[in-house]
Design brief:
Layout (H helix, E strand, L loop, with lengths): L1 H12 L5 E2 L10 E5 L13 H9 L12 E5 L4 H12 L3 E6 L3 H12 L6 E5 L8 H4 L4 E4 L16 H12 L4 E5 L3 H4 L3 H4 L1 H18 L4 E4 L24 H12 L3 E6 L1 H10 L1
Parallel strand pairs: 3-4, 3-6, 4-5, 6-7, 7-8, 8-9
Antiparallel strand pairs: 1-9, 2-9
Helix pairs in contact: 2-10, 3-10, 6-9, 10-11
């Protein structure tokens, strides 16, 4: 009973995410990572968002005047998405953030998460479950999907599975070959959570299957367990005993590496993500 309560508490409040990567440093953890370049990028713990901000600031290069390319982030005003957008903008990339929120609501949310406003982001309002996504993807070289419904939310299966299947299919149809998906660690999805939040786990699995079908080994699937801290205004309980939260900056850094074509494969679990981020 205590175990179930702990799992319910942790699963209901945490971002459970995913992707893949291959690095020597991460070889002892789940997942594999293919690293094409080790230059430039950074990584989350339970010590609040201040840690994540400082972790990235220390590694951020100066932004360039001209755009280095366009990256679309579905869920760009969310916790991981906001940090990924900041890293990309800092490196001179044009970023389009897609969310069901209005542009103003997205900008306000990002400012709450990062502590500062983020210029250089084009905030677009669209429902990835029903909207035509082709126009949003025009000219993009890469896409990151942080979209998903948290455990216990409404429409968990389609809100994690079908929506990401639509996104992946649209990205493939647009001829974009760099795709990053944030899923959930197998350590969590294979545990008691699959009996408590079955639709959540099934939806995440469907999303991974769709990404692999459309992009094969060229995609990056990042699969975190617990991400440290939380967006302002959200309270999250501690995770299962023995699981160390991963810094949000680490997850975002890995996602950016995948979007820039530096990594591909699957990074499964917090230890693997932290190791991979440290090796970038």
């Amino acid at each position: 009973m205590l175990l179930v309560s702990a799992v319910l508490a942790s699963a209901a409040g945490f971002n459970l995410i995913g992707s893949r990567l291959t690095s020597t440093a991460a070889a002892t953890a789940r997942g594999t990572v293919s690293m094409k370049s080790a230059d430039g990028l950074a990584r989350r713990s339970f010590i609040t968002t201040a840690f994540a901000a400082s972790a990235w600031t220390s590694l951020a290069p100066m932004a360039s005047a001209a755009s280095n390319g366009k990256v679309v982030i579905f869920g760009g005003s969310g916790y991981v998405g906001a940090y990924a957008a900041q890293m990309l903008v800092t490196q001179g990339y044009e970023v389009v953030s897609v969310s069901r929120k209005s542009a103003a609501e997205q900008a306000d949310k990002v400012k709450e998460i990062l502590g500062v406003g983020l210029s250089g982001v084009d905030y677009q309002s669209a429902d990835a479950l029903s909207s035509d996504l082709s126009g949003l993807l025009t000219g993009a070289s890469a896409v990151i999907s942080c979209v998903g419904i948290a455990p216990g939310g409404t429409n968990q299966r389609d809100g994690n599975g079908k929506v990401n299947t639509r996104i992946a299919d649209a990205v493939k149809a647009a001829g974009i070959d760099k795709f990053v998906y944030i899923g959930v660690a197998s350590e969590l999805s294979g545990g008691p959570i699959k009996f408590i939040f079955g639709d959540y786990v099934k939806g995440k699995a469907e999303a991974v299957a769709s990404v692999k079908k459309d992009f094969g080994a060229s995609a990056l699937i990042i699969q975190p367990g617990i991400i440290a801290g939380a967006p302002p205004g959200e309270l999250r309980p501690p995770g299962p005993p023995g699981m160390t939260p991963v810094p949000v900056a680490a997850v975002a850094k890995a996602a950016v590496a995948g979007a820039l074509g530096k990594t591909s494969g699957t990074i499964d679990g917090n230890d693997a993500i932290a190791a991979a981020a440290g090796a970038m």
